[in-house]
Amino acid sequence: MVDLARVQKELHECNRDVQVSGINVTLKGDSLTHLIGTIPGPIGTPYEGGTFKIDITLTDGYPFEPPKMRFATKVWHPNISSQSGAICLDILKDQWSPALTLKTALLSIQALLSAPEPDDPQDAVVAQQYLKDHQTFVSTARYWTETFAKTCAAEEKIQKLVEMGFPEAQVRSTLEATGWDENLALEKLLSS
Amino acid sequence: MSTQPTSTMVSDSIPMASSNPKDFAKKKRVNRSAKLKQCKLDARREQWLSQVKNKGSKEEPNGEGGACGQGIHVANERGNLMEKLAIMPQGKEEENGGCMNHYSDFDSPSNSPTSHTSSVLEGNDSGTNFTGGSSSSNSSSSGGCCSGSMSEEDNEEDDGCLDDWEAVADALAATDKKQEQHNSSLDSAPESDGNVVNMSSQVSGMDSSQQNPKGRGTLPGSPVSIRAWRPDDAFRPQSLPNLSKQYTFPMNSGRHYRGGSVWGCKSLSIPTSCPICCEDLDFTDTSFLPCPCGFRLCLFCHKRILEEDGRCPGCRKQYKHDLVEGETTRDAGCLMFRPARSCSMISRS
C-alpha cells in the first residue's frame, strides 16, 4: 500500500513552491499512484524552453522503493531512451533513498538533462552521437525540444487564437511562420 | 540561614547540606518513580560511579591550584559516603593539596563573609529569582577562588548530586524546572546555605539518569551535562564543548526537546514528523538516533528499512546494529564526551 499521507504531503509541498522550482506534480487520474510531473528544460541546454512531462507510477513499496519514472515527452538525451522515455538514473534504481521525494527525484532528472552521462547510456545511438558528433547532438536535441517539449504551449496558443475566431489551419501556419510568437501571429492574422 | 554565623558555617552547613538534599532527593525520586525505572537508573549510577572514580584520579593534577581545585575535590570525594562527609575537612586536607588553599581561603575573614553574604542573598532570592542568586554566587566565588559555599558544595556532591557550584548555579537558572526549583528552594532556603541546598535538591530532583553522569562526571560546567544524558540526547555531547557558559544558560531552560534542538548542529534539525512516513514523531522516536549521520526517522520506518536493505536514508550507509540500541548510543555518547568535559574544566581553571 502506498503511503498516501506522504504522497499527499509531497504533492502539497511540491506545488507550494512551483513558482520557484518550476517543478510540478499533478494527479494523472483519481489515484494517487499515477502522477504526472513536469520539469522545465534547464537553461543553457538544448532543452531550454521545453516543458517535459514525466510519467510517475508509485509502487506499493513507496517510499521504500523508488517511484517508477519515465519521460512522457520525447527527449533526445544519452541517458533517456528516445523510444520509451526510460530514464537511466541511479537514484531511481539502487541509489534510491526513502528520504528522497518526488520533487527531489524530478530535480535530479532536471540535473541529468543538463549533465548527460554518455558513458552510462540508456540510448546508445544518442550517446554515440553525443560523443562523436556533438554539434549534431545539440541540434537534434534542440529540434526534439522544439517539436515535442513545446507542443503543449503551441497547442494552447493555437487554441487561444482559434477561440478568437480564426480558422485553425490558418492559425497554425501563421504561428509557424512567426516562430510561435503569439502576438506577432495575431497581428499577422488581423492584417491578413 | 541568614542568622547563621559565618564562623560556624562549615560545621553547621556540612551536615545540613549533606543531609537535607538527600531528603529532597529522596522525595523527588519518589515522585518520579512512577515515570522512571529506578533500578535501571541505579545501575547506571553505579556504572558512572566506577567510571568517574577513575576519571577523578586522572584529573587530579590539573586541579591543584585556585578555583579548579573544586573540580578535584569533586573528583576525589565523589565516591565518599555520607558518614565521611561530616569529617570531610580532615579528609580533604590529607587527600588533596588543593584543599589546603581551599580551607585557608575559607577561614580568612575577607573571603568567607563575602561568600556567605552572597549565599544569604541567594537564599532570599531563591524563591523568586534564581538567576540573580546564581550570578551572585558566581561572582563571589570566582573572585575568591575557593569559598565557604564551595566547600559545602563539595560535601554535597558526594551526595551524588553535584559536581560544581557553577553547575549548580546554572541549574538554578533552569526555568523549566520550575516545580522542582520552587519545591526545593522553598524547602531548603530556610536551612543552611540556600544556594547550595537549592541546587543540590534541584539536581537530585532531576532524572537520576542525568544526575548520575553529572555527579560522577568530571565536568564542572554543567547542568549542561545533566541534560546531555537525557535518553533523547544521544550524540549531543559532540557539540557541547564549543558552547560558552552563558550560552548554555538559556538552553538549560529548554526541555530536552528544545535543548536538544539548540545544541548540536545535527540535533538542530530534529524533525517533528518522520521524513519517511510523515507521521508525527513521539518521544521515543525523537530520542532515537540510529545513524551517526544524524538522520532521524520513526521506529516503524526504521524497522521497515532494516527488513529491506538496512541502509540509512540519510547517508545510504548500512545501519550499525550496536548503535541501534538506545542504551548503547547513550553510553557511546558519554564516552565520547568525557574528554571534552575534562577539557572544559582545564580551560576554566
Automatic annotation (TrEMBL), chain A:
<dbReference type="InterPro" id="IPR000608">
    <property type="entry name" value="UBC"/>
</dbReference>
<keyword id="KW-0067">ATP-binding</keyword>
<dbReference type="Pfam" id="PF00627">
    <property type="entry name" value="UBA"/>
</dbReference>
<feature type="domain" description="UBA">
    <location>
        <begin position="153"/>
        <end position="192"/>
    </location>
</feature>
<keyword id="KW-0833">Ubl conjugation pathway</keyword>
<dbReference type="InterPro" id="IPR041974">
    <property type="entry name" value="UBC27_UBA"/>
</dbReference>
<protein>
    <recommendedName>
        <fullName>E2 ubiquitin-conjugating enzyme</fullName>
        <ecNumber>2.3.2.23</ecNumber>
    </recommendedName>
</protein>
<dbReference type="InterPro" id="IPR016135">
    <property type="entry name" value="UBQ-conjugating_enzyme/RWD"/>
</dbReference>
<dbReference type="GO" id="GO:0061631">
    <property type="term" value="F:ubiquitin conjugating enzyme activity"/>
</dbReference>
<feature type="domain" description="UBC core">
    <location>
        <begin position="2"/>
        <end position="150"/>
    </location>
</feature>
<dbReference type="Pfam" id="PF00179">
    <property type="entry name" value="UQ_con"/>
</dbReference>
<dbReference type="InterPro" id="IPR015940">
    <property type="entry name" value="UBA"/>
</dbReference>
<dbReference type="GO" id="GO:0005524">
    <property type="term" value="F:ATP binding"/>
</dbReference>
<dbReference type="InterPro" id="IPR009060">
    <property type="entry name" value="UBA-like_sf"/>
</dbReference>
<keyword id="KW-0547">Nucleotide-binding</keyword>
<feature type="active site" description="Glycyl thioester intermediate">
    <location>
        <position position="88"/>
    </location>
</feature>
<comment type="similarity">
    <text>Belongs to the ubiquitin-conjugating enzyme family.</text>
</comment>
<keyword id="KW-0808">Transferase</keyword>
<dbReference type="InterPro" id="IPR023313">
    <property type="entry name" value="UBQ-conjugating_AS"/>
</dbReference>
Automatic annotation (TrEMBL), chain B:
<dbReference type="InterPro" id="IPR013083">
    <property type="entry name" value="Znf_RING/FYVE/PHD"/>
</dbReference>
<feature type="region of interest" description="Disordered">
    <location>
        <begin position="1"/>
        <end position="160"/>
    </location>
</feature>
<dbReference type="GO" id="GO:0030014">
    <property type="term" value="C:CCR4-NOT complex"/>
</dbReference>
<keyword id="KW-0863">Zinc-finger</keyword>
<feature type="compositionally biased region" description="Acidic residues">
    <location>
        <begin position="151"/>
        <end position="160"/>
    </location>
</feature>
<feature type="compositionally biased region" description="Low complexity">
    <location>
        <begin position="108"/>
        <end position="119"/>
    </location>
</feature>
<keyword id="KW-0479">Metal-binding</keyword>
<dbReference type="Pfam" id="PF14570">
    <property type="entry name" value="zf-RING_4"/>
</dbReference>
<feature type="domain" description="RING-type">
    <location>
        <begin position="274"/>
        <end position="316"/>
    </location>
</feature>
<protein>
    <recommendedName>
        <fullName>RING-type domain-containing protein</fullName>
    </recommendedName>
</protein>
<feature type="compositionally biased region" description="Basic residues">
    <location>
        <begin position="25"/>
        <end position="38"/>
    </location>
</feature>
<dbReference type="GO" id="GO:0016567">
    <property type="term" value="P:protein ubiquitination"/>
</dbReference>
<feature type="compositionally biased region" description="Polar residues">
    <location>
        <begin position="1"/>
        <end position="21"/>
    </location>
</feature>
<dbReference type="InterPro" id="IPR001841">
    <property type="entry name" value="Znf_RING"/>
</dbReference>
<feature type="compositionally biased region" description="Low complexity">
    <location>
        <begin position="126"/>
        <end position="150"/>
    </location>
</feature>
<dbReference type="InterPro" id="IPR039780">
    <property type="entry name" value="Mot2"/>
</dbReference>
<keyword id="KW-0862">Zinc</keyword>
<dbReference type="GO" id="GO:0008270">
    <property type="term" value="F:zinc ion binding"/>
</dbReference>
<dbReference type="GO" id="GO:0004842">
    <property type="term" value="F:ubiquitin-protein transferase activity"/>
</dbReference>
<feature type="compositionally biased region" description="Polar residues">
    <location>
        <begin position="195"/>
        <end position="213"/>
    </location>
</feature>
<dbReference type="InterPro" id="IPR039515">
    <property type="entry name" value="NOT4_mRING-HC-C4C4"/>
</dbReference>
<feature type="region of interest" description="Disordered">
    <location>
        <begin position="175"/>
        <end position="222"/>
    </location>
</feature>
